[in-house]
Amino acid sequence: MTNTTTAPLATTAPAASPAAPRPASSVVLGWLRRTPGDLLYLLTGMPVALVSTVVLWSLASLVTSLAGSVVLIPLALVALLAVLACARGFAHVERFRLAWTGERIPAPARAGSPLTPPAPTRTGPWWRWWDWLRDGQLWLDLLHGSIAIALATVTWSITVAWLATGLAGVSWWAWGDRAQAAAAPGTVSVAGIDSLPVVWQVLVGAALLVTLVPVARGLAFAHAAFARGTIGNSSVRALAQRVEVLTASRAAASDAEAAALRSLERDLHDGPQQRLVRMEMDLAATQRRLAAGDAEAAATALGEARQQAQEALAELRALSRGIAPPVLADRGLVAAVESLASRSAVPTTVRTTALGRVPSGVERAAYFVVAEALTNAAKHSGARAAVVDLAVSAAPEGRWLVVRVEDDGVGGADPASTTGTGLRGLAARAQAVDGALSVASPAGGPTVVEARLPLP
């Protein structure tokens, strides 16, 4: 029995017309709103940069010390991985701090994100460590964390001097006389500032505080520009990642198609072809028996031939479902998934939202994810119930069709195992359309298979 729940798709507001140029007053108000965040970022910049420099340089020194001995090279590699891990952590902290200023620095796409789906055959800790060492972004994170203290020292000094001088000027009328009286004999005035009249002291301080707004904005922007070039997802780096993803997707599509053709050829050879050969032999035997006048034996042979034809037809229908069911092309993904659920040996509930237009390649990939997951639930997991969710989610990188199949079986499914060829094939299908597949199946269950497939 299949239960289907459909939620309406939220309406989308019409696209706004291109915005007119912002007036100068709007820009100034925007700077004023950002000033507290700019000051908080700049004043904490020096301590954070000092911590990152000390940690990273200390670990780097440990790496060079360990690498001096052949016996300790494995420990040096572990220490190097620790350096890169710390560099990534400090990069996350820097992007978080820059958000205080209103500067949103997008994090670079890492391996395993929807933009960079992982190769399903490369698993294990050694491969992960190797991927870390060859990840150029981690080395850029290390560069940023190691030399950011130079820029932080300059901007922190300017901010502190500007802010302290401005505050001292506007409050000089309250404590300036006492400060001059308490000054040690022979104290030299800097540019004669403390000898200015109180009103000038206040005016100079006020001018410094007013100009602190654009100064802080400029200093924060300098940090943001440095971060975009090192720990941000620059356009060149994003394009290179996209080319790498498309290359992997093309290879995955080719491999998936070749594997599907080999499987179809093997299934045709082992199933319907053998049935048809047997039917041809039965028909030949029927012809001989009819020629000999043995009608009873001929009828028996015809019955066997008919049985072989029925079995061959059933196997061809089963194979056609592995190619593309007609209902998928005629009525769409939701109807095809509901048909799958109704035929499943495990009672399945289908929950959907209004999906809108789904490309045919994405529909096929989503259909086969559901089909394979329900087949595994029926054959291997001992599940008593399954739930299929079809939904559209929005993310900064675009819209995604999220296909989620959960069963309450015993779990233990592992795409990396030698027996997990079906799940590996699904990962290749998802990667072929620039998507990604994840499998969570702890011992004892539940098993959750989730595919994220891109939508236009």
TrEMBL record:
<dbReference type="InterPro" id="IPR050482">
    <property type="entry name" value="Sensor_HK_TwoCompSys"/>
</dbReference>
<keyword id="KW-0902">Two-component regulatory system</keyword>
<keyword id="KW-0597">Phosphoprotein</keyword>
<feature type="coiled-coil region">
    <location>
        <begin position="295"/>
        <end position="322"/>
    </location>
</feature>
<dbReference type="InterPro" id="IPR036890">
    <property type="entry name" value="HATPase_C_sf"/>
</dbReference>
<keyword id="KW-0418">Kinase</keyword>
<keyword id="KW-0067">ATP-binding</keyword>
<dbReference type="GO" id="GO:0005524">
    <property type="term" value="F:ATP binding"/>
</dbReference>
<feature type="domain" description="Histidine kinase/HSP90-like ATPase">
    <location>
        <begin position="361"/>
        <end position="456"/>
    </location>
</feature>
<dbReference type="Pfam" id="PF13796">
    <property type="entry name" value="Sensor"/>
</dbReference>
<keyword id="KW-0812">Transmembrane</keyword>
<dbReference type="Pfam" id="PF07730">
    <property type="entry name" value="HisKA_3"/>
</dbReference>
<dbReference type="InterPro" id="IPR025828">
    <property type="entry name" value="Put_sensor_dom"/>
</dbReference>
<feature type="transmembrane region" description="Helical">
    <location>
        <begin position="39"/>
        <end position="60"/>
    </location>
</feature>
<feature type="transmembrane region" description="Helical">
    <location>
        <begin position="198"/>
        <end position="220"/>
    </location>
</feature>
<dbReference type="InterPro" id="IPR003594">
    <property type="entry name" value="HATPase_dom"/>
</dbReference>
<keyword id="KW-0808">Transferase</keyword>
<protein>
    <recommendedName>
        <fullName>histidine kinase</fullName>
        <ecNumber>2.7.13.3</ecNumber>
    </recommendedName>
</protein>
<keyword id="KW-0175">Coiled coil</keyword>
<dbReference type="GO" id="GO:0046983">
    <property type="term" value="F:protein dimerization activity"/>
</dbReference>
<dbReference type="Pfam" id="PF02518">
    <property type="entry name" value="HATPase_c"/>
</dbReference>
<feature type="transmembrane region" description="Helical">
    <location>
        <begin position="66"/>
        <end position="87"/>
    </location>
</feature>
<feature type="transmembrane region" description="Helical">
    <location>
        <begin position="138"/>
        <end position="164"/>
    </location>
</feature>
<dbReference type="GO" id="GO:0016020">
    <property type="term" value="C:membrane"/>
</dbReference>
<keyword id="KW-1133">Transmembrane helix</keyword>
<dbReference type="GO" id="GO:0000155">
    <property type="term" value="F:phosphorelay sensor kinase activity"/>
</dbReference>
<feature type="region of interest" description="Disordered">
    <location>
        <begin position="1"/>
        <end position="22"/>
    </location>
</feature>
<dbReference type="InterPro" id="IPR011712">
    <property type="entry name" value="Sig_transdc_His_kin_sub3_dim/P"/>
</dbReference>
<keyword id="KW-0472">Membrane</keyword>
<keyword id="KW-0547">Nucleotide-binding</keyword>
